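Below is the data:
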Amino acid sequence: MTDFWSALLNTFTGALSEANALTAWEGIAVILAAAYLLLAMKGSIWCWFAAFASTAIYTALFWKVSLLMESVLNVYYMAMAIYGFQQWSKGKRDDTGGVISWSFNRHLKIIVVTAGVSLLMGYLMANFTSASFPYLDAATTCYAVMTTYLVAKKVLENWLYWVVIDLVSIYLYLQKGLMLTSLLFILYVGMAIGGYFLWRSTMREQDMATVS
């Protein structure tokens, strides 16, 4: 009986220690992710450095809690941080890195195609992996993949996609007990709305400068 209680105590202590470690890393990732978004809103190229570090941490965290596609997504984010840095650097050098807007029809095509891919990925995950919430996980992943590309291209409407993605992500993270990340994404919703209006103002200034 003594051995049983000793083993139980060791298990509990180990689990608590692991949870504390995860929370500490999650906190660091949250700070870096918030820094990324603030810098992106301001159009600062340094946002991509914060993005790379944050997503490296989240890759490990999401794998740990079995949000498999979220983990894979963050590997993609790391690659896009490098791509985004290159694109924004290029735009700065040749003066072509301003905010742009795409037509409604173009966005509609993107939404339909991405939805189709999301359903396929969700089906595969539901039937061949141990992923939690496979269809929601796949949807947030596929749309985030597409939207991150829009950020790198400085497409204004990327912020509107992020509002929807972040709202769904909040539900996923709450279900998995990632409280700090859930709070971060609540903040993200407000910041994404602010980012849209900030970039729209920047685009209008660009248009006025072009006309004059």
Notes: The two ends are 85 Å apart (CA to CA). The chain has seven helices and no strands. Residues 2-41 form the longest helix (40 residues).
